[in-house]
Amino acid sequence: MSFSDLLITALLSIAPISELRGAIPFALAKGMPVVWAYLFCVAMNFLASILVLIFLNTLHKLFYHISLYRRFFDSFIERARRKVGPNLDKYGTWGLTVFVAIPLPVTGAITGTLGAWVLGMKKRQILPAVLAGVAIAGIIVSVIAYYGIEAFSFFTKQV
User: Fold this and answer.
1) Which position among 13, 91, 109, 121 has the lowest Cβ density within 10 Å, counted as fewest Cβ atoms?
2) Domain-by-domain residue ranges, the chain?
3) CB neighbours of 107 closer than 8 A, spacing ≥ 6?
């Protein structure tokens, strides 16, 4: 695997649209061993959620002094908490872990971190839940991608 392939794998891992769903199959297709692909992509994806949390904590504090932002943010948060608050109270960090663990579009580490932050979860709750969810999603995607590539190679001829 070349350096550029490794870089693309890292970028796919931290991109909100692809995350592990795109990074692990790409790494496996480029010849990275499945264990290394899993470890590298999970680490990069979790790093993305940490960066999102840092970004939100710093920029939000800066922008909150702007009255237009404050009004929009407060109304957005109030609506979100009214809709999701009871479920957050009921499922908490386990619900966040399951949400992140489902390898479907808009259910990854970045969206989970953003949603948990918006709903007021603490960092010490968010990060372990997201890490567990990313680890589970990585296992699911790795198994599906590995056996999918193996199944596909059954139908193709090596040249």
Assistant:
1) 91
2) 3-154
3) 99, 100
Q: If you write DSSP's letter for every residue of 84-110 in order, what string do you get?
A: HHHHHHHHHHHHHHHHHHS-STT-SHH
For the four alpha carbons of 101, 43, 10 and 145, in that order, the dihedral sign comes to negative
Structure tokens of 1?
């695997």
Dihedral pair phi/psi, residue 97, rounded to 5° = -60, -45
43 class by beta-carbon count within 10 Å (0-12 exposed, 13-18 middle, 19+ buried): middle
pLDDT tens for 61-99 read: 888 889 998 888 888 877 777 777 677 778 889 999 998
Q: pLDDT-derived band of residue 145, with 50, 70 and 90 as boundaries?
A: very high
One-letter amino acid identity for 24? I
Query: Residue 124 has what pLDDT?
Result: 93
Phi first, then psi: what are they for 65, rounded to 5°? -75, -15
User: What SS3 class is residue 2?
Assistant: coil
In this structure, how many other beta carbons lie within 10 angstroms of the beta carbon of residue 92? Answer: 14
CA gap 153, 19 in Å, rounded: 24
Q: Residue 101 in contact with residue 70, Cβ under 8 Å?
A: no
